[in-house]
Amino acid sequence: MLDYKLKDSVLILSEANKTGTRVASIIFDPFDENSKTLTGIWKDLISGKTLPVQVSRDYDMTGGKDTAWTNKDVIQAISLKGRYFKTVLSKDSGEYYAAVRGVKILDKKTGILLQQIPVDCQQRGIYSIAVDDYNFDGYEDFSIFEEAYAGANESSLYFLYNPTKKKYFKSNIYGISLVFDPVSKTITESNACCGGRERSVTTYRLVKNEMVEVASHHYVWDEKEQDYVEKKKPVRKKNPINLIH
User: Fold this and answer.
1) Scanning 93, 173, 190, 220, which has its CA 20 to 30 A from the CA of 70?
2) From CA 26, how far away is CA 40, in angstroms rounded?
3) How many domains does the chain have?
4) Are residues 106 and 20 in the same domain?
5) What's the pTM value of the predicted model, to 2 decimals?
6) For residue 64, is it within any domain?
C-alpha cells in the first residue's frame, strides 16, 4: 500500500514497512494528471539507491450518464498468499456509476490468471474484496462487497476455497452485515430497519456449508429506557379443544 502527497506539481508515493516507517518512495516531478506518460524515480530511503520509473496511462474510467465502457481492471488492496485480485468493471450508458462484473484471481509471481468469476455488484474502488476463513476450515476464502442498503445494512458474496480443485466457488452464505466468529464458529447477522428504531440479530452455524439458524432476537428502541429492548415473540394460546382431547 502506498500513501501519497501532492504539492506544487510534485507527486510522492511512499511505501512503509510493518512498523509504519517509510522505506521507499516513487517521485514524479513534474506530475501532470492529464499526461499519458509519467517519468520519475524510485528511491530506497534507507540506502539512498535510486532507479528510473516510467508509467503509461492504460485507460481511464470516465464518469457521467452518457459514457459507457467495459472490462476495465482495478487491482485490489487486499490479497492472499501467492494470489492477488482484480475487479472487472463495466459502465452502461445511462448509469452514473460503474458496476463490478467479475473478479480475477492472479498468481503473484507470474501474473497468470488462475480464475475469473462473474458477479454483479456495486463497486468500492480498491476496497471491494475482503479475505477471511468464512467456513472455518483452515483455508482463506474471499468475499466481495455486493450492495449497500438503508442505514448501515450491506451484503457481500462469499466464495469458499476448494483445496482439492484449488479453486473458489460461490457459497450459500448470505445475509445482511454478517460477522464471522472463528472461536465459536458462528455467523451473526445484524439487520436494522425503520430508521434504526428496530434491529434483529440472528446467529447461524454452518452445516455442510449451509447456514442453520441457532438463535434470533428482535430489538426495539425504547424512549423511556433510552436503549434497545428485546421484543418477545407473542406466545401462542393453546387450542381449548386440544386441551379437552
Assistant:
1) 173
2) 7
3) 2
4) no
5) 0.81
6) no
With contact defined as beta carbons under 8 Å apart, do 225 and 201 qualify? Answer: no
Q: What tens-digit pLDDT sequence spans the chain (245 residues)?
A: 789 999 999 999 999 998 989 999 999 999 998 899 999 999 999 999 999 999 999 888 877 788 899 999 999 999 998 999 999 999 998 888 899 999 999 999 999 999 999 999 999 999 999 999 999 999 999 999 999 887 678 999 999 999 999 999 999 999 999 999 999 999 999 887 766 677 888 999 999 889 999 998 888 877 776 667 777 765 454 444 444 43
Pair 77, 188 in one domain: yes
Residue 244 lies in a domain: no
SS (H, E, C) 85-125: EEEEEEECCCCCCCEEEEEEEEECCCCCEEEEEEEEEECCH
In which residue are the cell numbers 476448494 written? 162
Q: Order of strands across the sheet with 10-16?
A: 2-7, 10-16, 22-28, 37-44, 50-56
Task: Please give the grid coordinates belonging to residue 194.
Answer: 425503520
Domain that holds residue 171: 69-230
Report if residue 75 sits inside a domain: yes
User: What share of residues in the chain are helix, strand, coil (percent, to 5)?
Assistant: 5, 55, 40
The residue written with cell numbers 484471481 in the block is 105
Question: Which residue type, as a one-letter code, is found at position 217?
Answer: H
Dist. CA 119–CA 128, nearest whole Å: 12
Q: How many C-beta neighbours within 10 Å does residue 46 have?
A: 11
**Tally of CA atoms within 13 A in the half-sphere of 10 that contains its CB:** 9
Answer yes or no: is 237 within a domain.
no
Q: Give the separation between CA 162 and CA 235, rounded to whole angstroms.
A: 44
Q: Residue 75: CB partners within 8 Å, gap ≥ 6?
A: 84, 85, 86, 126
